[in-house]
Amino acid sequence: MGPDDISQLTAPSGANSPDGLDYYIDNASPPGQTFTTGVGRQRLYIASLGILTAGNGGQLPAGGQTYLLRLYTDSSGSNAQLFASYTSQEGFTFAETDWLLWTNLDLALPANTQFAYSFARSPSGAGWENLGNVSGNPYPGGEVALIPPGGGAMTLGSSHDYDATFVVGLTPTTNLLANPPVVSPSSAVTRGTSVTLTVSAVGPGPLTYQWRTEGGSGGAVTNTPQATGTTLALTATNLASGTYRYDVVVSNGTSSVTSAVVALSIFVEAAATLTDAGNTIQSGP
Q1: Does the predicted model carry a pTM greater than 0.90?
Q2: How do residues 218-238 score in pLDDT, each as one tens digit?
Q3: CA distance 28 to 26
Q4: CATH 2.60.120, domain 6-172, yes or no
Q5: In this structure, are residues 177 and 257 in contact, taking their beta carbons and an 8 Å threshold?
Q6: Angle at CA 247, nearest 5°, toward 244 and 249?
Q7: For the chain, which residues make up each domain, given as ranges?
Q8: Whole-angstrom distance, CA of residue 35 vs CA of residue 241
Q9: Nearest to residue 109, comparing CAs of 146, 71, 76?
Q10: Sequence-separated (6 or more) residues with CB below 8 Å from residue 115
Q11: Domain 177-267 in CATH: superfamily?
Q12: Are 270 and 193 in contact (CB under 8 A)?
């Protein structure tokens, strides 16, 4: 445990359905927990996340399977926005009532912000397992939740009195960190679709942003005029079909860091006329 970690370590006495929630890893909206980063540190990244299982598993494959960890922002306290997803190695096995530890996450998190995680088995897998949770509100910075995989309205307990048994491993850093931009609603869209690119970064502020693109040419990226915020809104109406690459440079006056490149693919989807041309066809327009 480090000084910046967020945790609730009280172990449950057995499997539990907090406030009647289906707190099992095969649930369509997997179980998880909301949590809030502290105000004392402005430069943190999440290095690990540990989750305690509670037992009552249902025929988990002896040969193992893959598992999914998803991280969400939660600005409203009840609506999750997916921003990171991790898949375990294939054939992972575990014993009931063990801690499951995700490592090498290395994702920047700003301070004084609410987040959430969920844990699930692969949708194509088998079996179930209850995640550890206890009543009494031992962690006041969040609560258990069922979270749709793609984000959206979370299902919370009616009493708001239950917390998962978990540890979020946070590490301070003096460096600027910029996460890869996230494309919403999708990184492949039809012409005319409104698209938003979003970047998150942490570091000694104030932070400034400059989006860049190669305009679909495949060449070097250049600055996009007036694109200097954490989001870049696009409407793919006037863009030709193809792939456009974007990144963003984050600076604080003394240093800068460039995010990973994100690709946006645009394609045409339109009505066309189909006729029966008989047994001959003419060339030309």
Answers
A1: no
A2: 899 999 999 999 999 987 666
A3: 7
A4: yes
A5: yes
A6: 155
A7: 6-172, 177-267
A8: 41
A9: 71
A10: 34, 35, 36, 37, 71, 72, 73, 74, 109
A11: Immunoglobulins (2.60.40.10)
A12: no
